[in-house]
Amino acid sequence: MPTYAFPALSPHQSRTREPTEWEMSLAGAIEDAFGRGHHDLPGLVAALNASRIRPREGGTWTENSFTALMRELGA
């Protein structure tokens, strides 16, 4: 009898296009913030504001701007 194997999952299976350089930089900044223990939205936003990555429109990150961007990106 064959052994059942779980299907392979791709972390990018829902991707419809390659991420932009800015999106990759943002992903790196988010991973860095998580790695430093910022696991809540206020902490994540503060860590992003302390990083070099800025919102596309400039200025500073807010909880609203970050969550709106995550909705837009489908995250």
Overview of this protein structure:
The protein is mainly α. It is elongated and about 60 Å long. The protein has helices spanning 21-35, 41-50, 63-73. The model has no long low-confidence stretch (mean pLDDT 90). The chain has a domain at 39-75. Helix 1 crosses helix 2 (41-50). The longest helix is centred in the middle third of the chain and has 15 residues, at 21-35.
Order of helix and strand elements from N to C terminus: HHH
Averaged pLDDT: 90
Structural class: mainly alpha
**Uncertain regions spanning at least 5 consecutive residues:** none
Distinctive features:
mainly alpha
Topology of helices and strands:
Layout: H1 21-35, H2 41-50, H3 63-73
Short description:
The protein is mostly helical and 75 residues long. 48% of the residues lie in helices and 0% in strands. The chain has a domain at 39-75.
